[in-house]
Write a structure and sequence with these properties.
Blueprint: E1 2-10, H1 15-23, H2 27-35, E2 38-46, E3 49-56, H3 61-70, H4 72-81, E4 85-86, E5 98-99
Antiparallel strand pairs: 1-3, 1-4, 1-5, 2-3
């Protein structure tokens, strides 16, 4: 199992919309997240930052993320969520959510 932390900005005028979307995530999106071996997934909000945490239980993260990205329902979900978000300036090429380095963990 691999833990992931990611961060992105949320546009201040879109915070309530983003919260409303995530209060009732589409069932097919949740199903795809599960099929792509993502567990224990949470998104936190502080000011205009979103922090996500999840655990990946599969064996090929890149292939699972490609599967998710190819899913038409997930693509539609992202098209609704992305206008609420602003990537960090420090994102790597091709990143939307910025990957974070884990510097501490205790079980």
């Amino acid at each position: 199992m691999q833990r992931y932390g990611m961060v992105i900005k949320v546009k201040p005028e879109k915070i309530e919309e983003y919260k409303k979307l995530h209060a009732s995530v589409w069932p097919d999106v949740l199903k795809m997240i599960n099929e792509c071996n993502i567990r224990n997934y949470s998104i936190y909000l502080k000011d205009d930052y979103l922090f996500s945490y999840f655990e990946y239980t599969g064996t090929d993260f890149e292939a699972d993320m490609e599967k998710m990205a190819a899913d038409p329902v997930t693509q539609k979900w992202w098209s609704v969520c992305k206008p609420c978000q602003s990537p960090l300036e420090s994102c790597n090429e091709g990143e939307w959510w910025a990957n974070m380095e884990e510097v501490f963990h205790q079980d």
